[in-house]
Amino acid sequence: MTTTNPYSEQQKNEILTAWVHGWTISRGTEAAFALAGYGYKIHVGLPGHLERYVLQGQALSAIQLLAHELSIPDTWIKICAPVSEIGALLPPRWTLKPVEYLMCKPITAHVDIDVPGAYTIQFGGDEQAVSIKALGPDGQIAATGRMALTARYAVFDQIVTEPSHRRKGLGRLLMQMLSNHAFARQADTGVLVATEDGYALYSALGWSLCSPMTAAVINS
């Protein structure tokens, strides 16, 4: 993917930091531990995902050193840089995963939101994190999403539409409703990390690319 990136390294680092803190709030993990100014360590503690390291893209020597030191299976790293800059730095025990994208967008309110008649919307959460779900006519979950607030940032997470309910605008609807909530809480910038499929959707919704994200894991 070739595109002009308007973000400086400092801006990328600030956005990445917001995403890290928002992710820990959304997922209910321990707070992230800062790694001497080049990234963060998060204890996740789940099968297949014990620890996660989220790293700034410009710290190539520190990334290479850390990748060689880490050896415990189910350890993940996510690096704010394209795989073309990172792949050769990783020892063979690391398995590269599909590329992801750090994206952001100014938060604005959507006054008029039409919920399809067959669906109902439910909110939950607390002061730091909000969950939302759309229920279908049968009461089953059709789409879900989460958003965490950290400083002036709203971090969107786990926006998922079930296969049988796709192409009905539910993902867009939930994003708009979460944006309204963030706007009311004085957040001015939305942040998320998208998959390859999600990148096209979020781009169509006005989100801009901050940086490709290289992900890798040490397999069991």
Question: Would you mind describing this structure in some detail?
Answer:
It is a single chain. Strands 1, 2, 3, 4, 5, 6, 7, 8, 9, 10, 11 and 12 form a twelve-stranded mixed beta sheet that branches. It contains five helices and twelve strands. It is globular. Helices cover 26% and strands 38% of the residues. The chain has two domains: 9-101 and 211-218, no CATH class; 108-187, Aminopeptidase (3-Layer(aba) Sandwich). The model has no long low-confidence stretch (mean pLDDT 91). The protein has helices at residues 9-27, 60-69, 83-86, 170-184, 196-204, and strands at residues 33-34, 39-46, 49-56, 75-80, 94-96, 100-106, 120-125, 129-135, 141-150, 153-161, 189-194, 208-218. The protein is of the alpha+beta class and 220 residues long.
